[in-house]
Amino acid sequence: MANFHSGGQKYPALWPEERADGAAKRILRHLLETLEYNQAELLSGRDGESLHDFRVAVRRTRCALGQIKQVFPAPRIRRFAAGFAELGRMSSAARDWEVYLQGLDAQAQTVPEPLRAALEPLRAELSRRHRRELRHLLRHLRSADHRRFLAEWRAFLDAPLPRRSSLLHATQPVLVVAGGRIEKVYRRVLKEGEAIEPDSPPQALHELRKTCKKLRYLLEFFQALYPPRRLQRLVGILKALQEELGAYQDSQVQVAALLELAATHKLRRAQPMTLMAMGALLRDVDQRAGQARAGFDRRFALLASAKTRRRFAGLLQVDNAAETD
Question: In the chain, which end has fewer C-beta atoms inside a 10 angstrom radius, N or C?
Fold first, then answer.
């Protein structure tokens, strides 16, 4: 049985010479099954990582639709892409507050002990916002519109492939299409990373993080086409960079969230000790952001090294002329 948790994605077997549109449909069908499994877990009310895994399945679906290009008719894909974008927005809103709430206990250890109890108003507000966004998401998942959207998506994925296609990559071998796309996104990662300076704004690192995520997802989608050991070595290097970028971005978002929460009517009326405790949290988050930013150069240097470039070139020893856009 497939692993439906994002930490251990197992994608369908692929054959190098099979059509790219057929391979893309099987990858997307697997992601739909992952999404539906975690949706059922969410709707059942069971605790665990179902919200996280649901959001990741949505995110990976959006990546596949955006990155496996010119294999499906654009008008159909635009409609589905818009639907998954909205689903991603709703699931992210619920998950973000869940993450803040789950991390508060650990973060509270960085606050002077006399102030820790004063964080309870913050905990209550985080919990309230999480419940609100989760209710909004669950209401949508139970709606007729959502059920119809997923039914139409499954019908599209289950429809037989056309014998011929005017789309550039639809009938090309998946190995050629995958290799060309992976190489292009890797080059984009290098270009964006090399442009990062010590005074670059957080948004520049956030954009690089998103591009790294696309590259990693592509490597995982098409993992069956490449030697496992060589692939995992490259994924490991990429994952280490993503973790630094993720820690930095999460810190930036947390700072903004804490400042926004401190300005809310409920917390403005809180005791001074609560605001002092939140100030201590802000200092810790800012310190962690600095540590993650300092670790970026080392992690990126490894990904951009001549040795890693050779490894990517060796992995992608295919005719990548298919990638033209």
Answer: N
